[in-house]
Amino acid sequence: MTVYVISYDLNRPGQNYPELFEAIKACGSWWHCLTSTWMVSSSMSALDIATKLWAVMDANDKLLVNPVAKGSSWAGFTGDCESWIKNNL
């Protein structure tokens, strides 16, 4: 399993957050850390995740799917999100 940071900007008025959220949750074990940022532990590749999410996004929306390497340095998350990261990396 690989842990990914998924971050997005939905730029169209009336963005379809529920459909995007369901698509993210379907990728694996997840944690919704920040308003537009999720962490997902998945056996899918970054490209497979991005393709799945782009299918429910508009052409002018923005998306980043980035792997988090085991042993990599990270900072900023505390509490439950920090625990999720430690348990899934």
Helix content: 25-40%
Sheet with the most strands? 4 strands, antiparallel
Overall domain count: 1
Give Rg in angstroms.
Answer: 13 Å
Look at the structure and give the mean pLDDT. Answer: 87
Tell how many strands the DSSP assignment holds: 4
Strand order, sheet with most strands: 2-3-1-4
Fraction of residues in β-strands: 25-35%
**SS content category:** alpha+beta
Q: Unreliable segments (pLDDT under 50, ≥5 consecutive)? A: none
Describe the global form.
globular
CATH fold field value: Alpha-Beta Plaits
Total of helices: 3
Which architecture name does CATH use?
2-Layer Sandwich
Broad CATH class: Alpha Beta
Between the first and last Cα atoms, what is the distance in angstroms?
Answer: 9 Å
Compressed to H and E, one letter per element, the order equals EHEEHEH
Report what the structure shows.
- The structure is a single chain.
- The chain has 89 residues and is of the alpha+beta class.
- The protein has a single domain, classed as Alpha-Beta Plaits.
- Helix content is 31%, strand content 30%.
- A 4-stranded antiparallel β-sheet has the order 2-3-1-4, with helices on both faces.
- The protein is globular, with a radius of gyration of 13 Å.
- The relative contact order is 0.28.
